[in-house]
Write a structure and sequence with these properties.
5 domains, 15% strand, alpha/beta, eight-stranded mixed sheet, 25 helices
């Protein structure tokens, strides 16, 4: 293959004039830059021009600064290093503005020094998603990850170093990241802060020394606890800490039993605090008991109120099913295990499978207390819970006008950079304002025949059995196996004893997240079709029993991305949800990537074997005036869907956009979307698509 000739200085000038026109002036021309690039091989010239265009799309000055120093950067850093140098400057532009970005580009020597020093270091930004998915697979509540100068946890967030470069190999540095994350997850999971440490530490002459010893003893205890469920992770921690001194080995033996708790570490502290303090283990980090106590206290108060709400809904639903309880109490009892976080909820002595939200709350409460305190079950009787009083509290989630506590930041994929724009989008979650209370009843009346048909089809899915043949025992004889056995015996071959058929119930274990386009383009009859589709879906899914949630999405630039709660996984399909469906209305634009990332996070918290992200949309990703329209939005959405798939989610899209064939196969894949040509058929076909997708 013949190598392309290098571009001449004149040709380069012409291309640079087009790319950098806004940054050129009477004092600046492309001639000097072109002269520096002209001696480079054609491949490097094309590399510089491509990245100059990417930089200039943000602001022309960045493109100018990059091209001016690109030859020197290529000589000093190579192509890979030059990319990282420019991406670091673009990140600085995103976060701080033009001047810091230009300063970063001009500090080429400083970047080289830092890159050399980092060596095989690993940045948290590179591995955060992997660590989040890894921690999500462990028991306990979900923890956030944030970069910090110190390593610690407040039981809700794990604060990790922005970069680890302690070892000469990347794999070793990543192992250390993983060990740090596991250790601090274990502090939250196994109750390191479930005891008030303030009076404990105050009893010692040097509280700081006592805290350091407590940190070390807890690390030893936690390693043993981790080893009970995750022996491989315990081996990782042990390998990094090295051999224990004889005194610490004795402490390990005393803390290794299954019932070992933070109280046992406190008891040992009295024996060890006066001894010389050993070096901390590499993964330990710091302890901030007061900060952890504050976060834990806020969580306990919030979860207690939330559990009251959920238990009252459960009680009311039970009374509706069992009239004999109308005038009496529905007594609640819970048996739980701190070791496994498993529990059994009984109402009037009968085991009840709780909704997902109740299960999540109970597991978190068990993690904080070791059990469900009796006073947490007071909502089981009349008068123990006042919905109106709760709604007046500052944490009441039922107020439609309330928003989540501030905006949440999300990265966004820039395909031109081949990298994420860090903390680029601000997302707010709120509740859909209720609409006409009679709306859903009207839809049910109009579609009464179709709803009945859908219910029958969905109920058939729920009741399906699978025949397992050639079993040792079963309800019926497998005649094919019996004939084969008879023939084998006649031939002198030992006959098989697997001669029976078993009927095995197909257990559906599905959680579905319905993501509804609430952009302005749905105004009118499309919005009406969407709302009707949601009604039919809910009616059908209630017959099927799958767990499902419904959220709308819209937005106005990256600074105002909105998610609207219609139905959460823990909610019943009651009057409140029906009113929110009636209140679904067109809003702003269609910034899809950030919505997918947020809703994927919620979906991944649902315990299910199969998780489906089901999108209803009328068009391609779009937003107002900030470059999201076109390829950028399509590629960001595609990347968000790839992230969802990597976490185990199955995305699927139903659209009425006639141009969908031009972009949906690229975003979702060839078999993960369907086009409905007639929007009037959206309500019925959406439910049918879901049935086929999950059968």
């Amino acid at each position: 293959m013949t190598e392309l000739r290098s571009l001449s200085q004149q040709e380069l000038e012409e291309k640079l004039d087009d790319i950098l026109c806004a940054a050129l002036s009477s004092r600046r021309s492309a001639a000097a830059i072109a002269a520096g690039i002209a001696p480079l091989p054609r491949a490097q010239q094309d590399f510089v021009l491509a990245w100059a265009e990417v930089a200039a799309q943000n602001v022309a000055e960045l493109g100018y600064q990059f091209t001016a120093q690109a030859p020197q950067a290529l000589a000093l850093l190579g192509r890979g290093g030059t990319e990282k140098w420019l991406l670091a400057a673009l990140d600085a532009y995103d976060k701080e503005g033009l001047y810091p970005a230009c300063a970063a580009l001009k500090d080429l020597a400083g970047f080289k020094r830092r890159a050399d020093a980092a060596g095989a270091g690993v940045a948290l930004a590179e591995v955060a998603r992997v660590l989040e998915l890894f921690l999500r697979g462990l028991a306990g509540r979900r923890l956030q990850l944030e970069a910090s100068d110190e390593t610690w946890t407040d039981t809700g967030t794990i604060f990790l170093p922005e970069r680890i470069a302690r070892h000469s190999e990347r794999a070793q540095n990543f192992r250390l990241y993983k060990a740090i994350a596991v250790h601090h997850w274990a502090q939250a999971r196994y109750g390191s802060f479930n005891l008030d440490l303030a009076p404990v530490l105050a009893a010692y002459a040097v509280p700081e020394r006592a805290l350091a010893w407590f940190n070390l003893l807890e690390a030893i205890r936690l390693e043993s606890q981790v080893g009970r469920g995750f022996p491989g992770l315990a081996a990782l921690l042990a390998a990094l800490r090295g051999e224990l001194a004889p005194g610490l080995a004795a402490a390990q033996a005393r803390l290794a039993h299954a019932e070992s708790s933070v109280a046992h570490s406190v008891a040992l502290l009295r024996e060890f605090h006066a001894l010389p303090l050993p070096e901390p283990f590499p993964y330990m980090g710091s302890l901030y008991p007061q900060r952890a106590a504050e976060v834990r206290g806020e969580r306990i108060a919030k979860e207690r109120r939330a559990l009251y709400t959920e238990l009252e809904q459960l009680r009311l639903a039970l009374q509706a099913e069992r009239p004999e309880l109308q005038d009496g109490e529905a007594a609640l009892e819970v048996e739980s295990s701190f070791e496994t976080l498993e529990f059994e909820l009984q109402i009037d002595g009968e085991a009840v499978a709780p909704p997902e939200e109740v299960a999540r709350l109970m597991r978190s409460i068990i993690q904080d207390f070791g059990e469900i305190p009796e006073e947490y079950l007071l909502a089981s009787g009349p008068g123990a819970y006042a919905p109106d009083a709760l709604a007046q509290g500052e944490d009441a989630s039922g107020l439609a006008e309330s928003r989540a506590e501030g905006g949440r930041l999300y990265d966004e994929w820039d395909f031109r950079r081949r990298d994420y724009r860090k903390d680029w989008c601000v997302l707010f979650e709120s509740e859909v304002l209720p609409g006409d209370p009679a709306y859903v009843a009207g839809v049910r009346a109009r579609y009464a025949g179709q709803i009945a048909q859908l219910r029958r089809r969905f109920e058939a899915l729920r009741g399906e059995d699978r025949l397992a043949r050639r079993q040792h025992e079963g309800e019926d004889i497998d005649f094919d196996a019996l004939v084969e056995a008879y023939a084998d015996r006649a031939s002198g071959i030992e006959a098989s004893e697997r001669l029976f058929v078993q009927r095995r119930r197909i257990e559906r274990n599905i959680a579905a997240m319905f993501m509804v386009d609430m952009s302005g383009s749905t105004k009118g009859w499309i919005n009406a079709c969407e709302r009707e589709a949601l009604v039919l879906l809910c009616e059908a899914l209630e017959a099927l029993g799958d767990r499902y949630a419904i959220y709308g999405f819209s937005g106005w630039t990256r600074k105002r991305c909105d998610i609207y709660r219609i139905k959460t996984f823990g909610e019943h399909y009651g009057e409140a949800v029906r009113a929110r469906i009636a209140g679904v209305e067109p809003r702003d634009y269609t910034r899809m990537g950030v919505a997918i990332r947020h809703l994927s996070g919620i979906l991944n918290e649902a315990e299910a074997k199969t998780r489906i992200l089901f999108t209803l949309s009328d068009g391609k990703p779009d937003d107002f005036h900030d470059g999201y329209r076109g390829d950028y939005g399509i590629e960001d959405t595609r990347q968000a869907l790839l992230e969802a798939r990597q976490s185990g989610i199955h995305p699927f899209c139903v659209t009425i956009d006639e141009e969908a064939r031009d972009y949906l196969p690229h975003m979702y894949g060839p078999a993960s979307w369907v086009l409905i040509d007639d929007a009037g058929q959206l309500p019925l076909k959406t439910a049918e698509v879901y049935r086929r997708l999950t059968s």
